[in-house]
Amino acid sequence: MDLIYISSVIVAIFCVFVAVFQVLLSLGYPLGEFAMGGYYKVLPKKLRIVSAVNALILLFMGFIFLQHTKVLNGLGFLSTNILVWVITIFLGLNTIANLLSRSKKEKLIMSPLSGFIFVLCLFIILL
Q1: Most exposed: 16, 25, 34, 127, by fewest CB within 10 Å?
Q2: Membrane spanning segments where (predicted)?
Q3: SS3 letters for the chain?
């Protein structure tokens, strides 16, 4: 296995981890201080829906990187070249947003997490 292969598996694992977190938020678990600015301990219903959608997007993101690096070949017709750039840019912006959050918990936990995934994604697409 090469470093790109391992990096994409790690990206996918972390995407699943954050997707599970988003599902917990969508189910009303009191983890809201770690997400979306930390304004709510338990997210209101509208934001729970956003979290559920975020979970699906995160799973898709992990899948795209696995497909891009040929770990999986599920949707061979789907070109991943542009999608990996979009995802990586999104993760960079997400890291900045987490750093600017008023929530100390979001800054301390989610910023390094999204930053780590961003760096791995950048590594994958630049090599």
Answers
A1: 127
A2: 6-29, 49-68, 74-96, 108-126
A3: CCHHHHHHHHHHHHHHHHHHHHHHHHCCCCCHHHCHHHCCCCCCHHHHHHHHHHHHHHHHHHHHHHHHCCCCCCCCCCCCHHHHHHHHHHHHHHHHHHHCCCCHHHHHHHHHHHHHHHHHHHHHHHC
- Candidates 58, 62, 66, 83; CA nearest to 5 is 66
24-62 b/e (C-beta count within 10 Å ≥ 16 → b): bbbeeeebbbbbbebebeebeeebbebbbebbeebbebb
pLDDT in tens, 68-125: 999 988 777 778 999 999 999 999 999 999 999 999 999 999 999 999 999 999 999 9
Q: 52: which 2 tokens?
A: 């559920």
Tell me, what amino acid is at 97?
Answer: A
Please, what is the average pLDDT of the chain?
94
- Please give the single-letter amino acid code of residue 66: L
Neighbours of 84 (CB within 10 A): 22
